[in-house]
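$ ./design --mode recover --in tokens.txt
reading tokens...
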């Protein structure tokens, strides 16, 4: 009986504990009725791996509600249509947001939304005087200061400028007891002290890094951390030799040996700090031809599984996800698209056993339409080939435009619409149009981005078919 009571108490305590970290977001977005708004976060602030943590369909009155549980103050951002806009959230808070009205049908797609995403303004009605207000006020003061004094700062070290400005902001924010903001405040100055060469590297380490906690979720701390250690391992440290790094990665393929190499720098004696800097270095090594990519991934996988620091396991895993996304041999993301009759098709699942040549396009994209001419000729050469299927996916915001285009043109390949599911564009990292992808018979990426129809597409398809066969 006592055991049951203890378990019941633990269960109730867990519910209360979780409830204390619940975050409630309710919003009003006139003009977005029927659209899906997604809440995203960065899995960490080194890989910047984006992940969806909540979503809602904006109802007929323009309102939406998203509830999540988070245990740290952090930055999150909304994705709707091609737009992104963010805010800082704190566990236990309720946020009421009001967006400016938007007529999505009037958005001008001649401005490429992939290269220049939309931003829709919103205000935080509740809570008043929240963390976002503090950061906005502080950042605006800093922006005005930098703009006014850019020439003097750029000409050389001018510590008194920053000291006087900091004395001013210290007085303005003296009564703020929000610890997250205090850290943000400190590392904003640390970043610009570094940028303006107002502190030596050893002073920066002693004042801001050593014997201080790593603030994994504080955007300004991690901004400073990334800036300090961007090139430190490869060019900044006097005790770490590049030859040692290439030897431990390429020849030894060893986590322990790499940690020992970094440990030659006395500033990196702290194991947690050293491993985090090593992870950041491995991220850079992955795209450096001087390092064997397979070995870099092997060490990252070791960290992902064995690190004693949970945050490092997450970061290493996210780097592996980002580095292997849409690479040759990786599984193609599963997506669902729709034809002009509203019939759903899953790609690549519904085309299993076939080589898929898939292109993303829109009617406002002139270069996309030019490629239709080349593809039409290529299709004729594979018309009776059971192993190859050609697919075009329209990213047109208005599906009626897609329907009219397909009905007015007798193109023989499969024509689908993305049905305003912007997760599809994220999955295939559609940043410019047209974009082409080749998926092999096993559902793996064969080419990304793939050659356009106006290129040597026939030769490429035949080569892939011969290799797979």
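writing sequence...
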């Amino acid at each position: 009986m006592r055991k049951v009571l203890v378990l019941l108490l633990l269960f109730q305590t867990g519910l209360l504990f979780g409830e204390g970290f619940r975050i409630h977001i309710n919003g009003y977005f006139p003009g977005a009725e029927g659209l899906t708004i997604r809440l995203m976060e960065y899995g960490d602030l080194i890989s910047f791996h984006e992940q969806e943590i909540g979503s809602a369909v904006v109802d007929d009155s323009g309102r939406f509600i998203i509830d999540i549980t988070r245990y740290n103050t952090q930055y999150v951002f909304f994705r709707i249509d091609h737009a992104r806009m963010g805010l800082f959230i704190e566990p236990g808070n309720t946020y009421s947001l009001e967006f400016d009205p938007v007529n999505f049908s009037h958005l001008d797609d001649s401005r490429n939304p992939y290269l220049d995403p939309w931003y829709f303004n919103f205000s935080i009605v509740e809570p008043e005087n929240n963390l976002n207000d503090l950061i906005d006020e502080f950042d605006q003061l800093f922006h005005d200061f930098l703009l006014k004094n850019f020439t003097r700062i750029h000409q050389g070290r001018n510590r008194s400028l920053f000291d006087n400005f900091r004395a001013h902001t210290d007085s303005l924010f003296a009564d703020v007891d929000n610890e997250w903001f205090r850290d943000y405040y400190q590392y904003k100055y640390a970043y610009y002290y570094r940028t303006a060469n107002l502190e030596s590297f050893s002073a920066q380490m002693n004042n801001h890094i050593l014997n201080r906690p790593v603030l994994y979720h504080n955007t300004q701390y991690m901004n400073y951390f990334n800036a300090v250690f961007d090139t430190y391992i490869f060019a900044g440290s006097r005790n770490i030799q590049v030859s040692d790094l290439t030897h431990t990665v390429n020849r030894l393929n060893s986590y322990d040996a790499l940690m020992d190499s970094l440990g030659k720098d006395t500033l990196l004696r702290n194991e947690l700090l050293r491993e985090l800097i090593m992870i950041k270095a491995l991220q850079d090594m992955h795209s450096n031809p001087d390092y064997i990519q397979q070995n870099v991934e092997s060490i990252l996988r070791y960290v992902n599984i064995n690190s004693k620091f949970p945050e490092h396991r997450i970061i290493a895993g996210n780097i592996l996800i980002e580095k292997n996304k849409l690479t040759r041999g990786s599984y193609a993301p599963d997506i669902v698209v729709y034809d002009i009759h509203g019939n759903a098709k899953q790609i690549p699942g519904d085309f299993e056993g076939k080589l898929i040549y898939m292109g993303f396009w829109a009617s406002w994209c002139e270069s996309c339409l030019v490629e239709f001419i080349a593809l039409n000729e290529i299709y004729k050469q594979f018309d009776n080939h059971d192993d190859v299927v050609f697919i075009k996916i329209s990213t047109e915001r208005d599906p009626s435009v897609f329907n009219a285009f397909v009905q007015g043109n007798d193109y023989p390949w499969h024509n689908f619409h993305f049905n305003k599911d912007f997760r599809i564009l994220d999955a295939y990292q559609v940043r410019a149009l047209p974009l082409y992808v080749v998926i092999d018979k096993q559902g793996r990426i064969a080419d990304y981005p793939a050659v356009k129809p106006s290129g040597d597409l026939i030769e490429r398809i035949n080569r892939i078919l011969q290799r797979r066969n």
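exit 0
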